[in-house]
Amino acid sequence: xxKYRFYFIILFLPSLLIGCVETNILDRVGLVTLxxxxxxxxxxxxxxxxxxxxxxxxxxxxxVVTTENSTSKGNRVKTNRKLSKKVVVGQMRVVLFGEELAxxxxxxxxxxxxxxxxxxxxxxxxxxxxxxAPLLEYEYQNIDDIGQHIFRLLEQNIEQExxxxxxxxxxxxxLYSEGEDIFMPIIxxxxxxxxxxxxxxxxNGKMVSSLRPEDTFYVKLIGGNYKSGTFETIxxxxxxxxxxxxNKPDEIPIAFDALTSEKExxxxxxxxxxxxxxxxxxxxxTEIYPDVNIGDPKTVKKLEEAISKNLSREISxxxxxxxxxxSDIFAFGDKYRSSVRNSKLTKxxxxxxxxxxxxxxxxxxxxxxxxxxx
Length: 374
Description:
Layout: H1 2-20, E1 29-39, E2 45-54, E3 60-69, H2 72-81, E4 86-88, E5 94-98, H3 99-104, H4 107-114, E6 124-128, H5 132-137, H6 146-159, H7 168-175, E7 183-190, E8 193-203, E9 206-211, H8 216-223, E10 231-236, E11 251-269, E12 274-287, H9 297-324, H10 332-339, H11 347-355, E13 358-369
Helix pairs in contact: 4-7, 8-9
């Protein structure tokens, strides 16, 4: 008898557990795919949400709702009051910050999402030029779901390595690291399109400046390894070797793809501090000035050297600019902390050291094959 009672309990327990799980029927909820934050009136928080509603025939409609309150939870309640379906955030894919808000401080917003168990750590975070609300509320001719559109825009550019990645997990990790600052893509509306317009760089959770979208390539080279990717650069007349071609033009645009890279970062002086940054690049040449004879190995060697110097200069420029605004988006501070025993590094201490940091950049580029020219 005891044996049968034991089996009965085992079979009965799952039904009790299932009954405790809250279920959401798709046609009874509104799925928040994107949420944006702006500075509201009287120091309140303005929240703009893109909410997808699905009817019983599985046809979807997107509502963009803006509310103001003192907290994000309060704004969700206000959003619920404006919709016929319960708002849920389990499908949220993107968080946007208005530029004014990003320049103030975004600690509390990141913390709120990190502490929310219903929010995925893989959602993307970005900054909107100006305010978020006008970007989302605009009636685009060819964009039906603005939340999904911005998510796909970020996703495909990050996967193609054309833009830096800034998931909630990555931003939260870097925000609380003593030796690194956060960065995010910048998004803006351009007529009927939404485009990536740069990189927002932060210091202690506050946006202090931005980089051009073209600088993404250099930021990714400094911060990590390329697995694949494309890039283009321009050699000025001064950078073009004298015997590379006859009648040198003012500049030569060059394009590459199938790019892979590796970096080696070494602290050589802890007092300055000073680093050696060596970057090795292997890539394929796909486009160049037609008068350059890339069939000649000597010409290719000279071209490699000229491009390596060009990239070293550009990387040094990006690092120097970030130093000028005291934003270490490259994690030099983390390398310093791991290399110096008992460094007792804090963000404040590192930012002081970072301003005078010296980095010796050396790029070694190899052209593996010349693409369509072979």
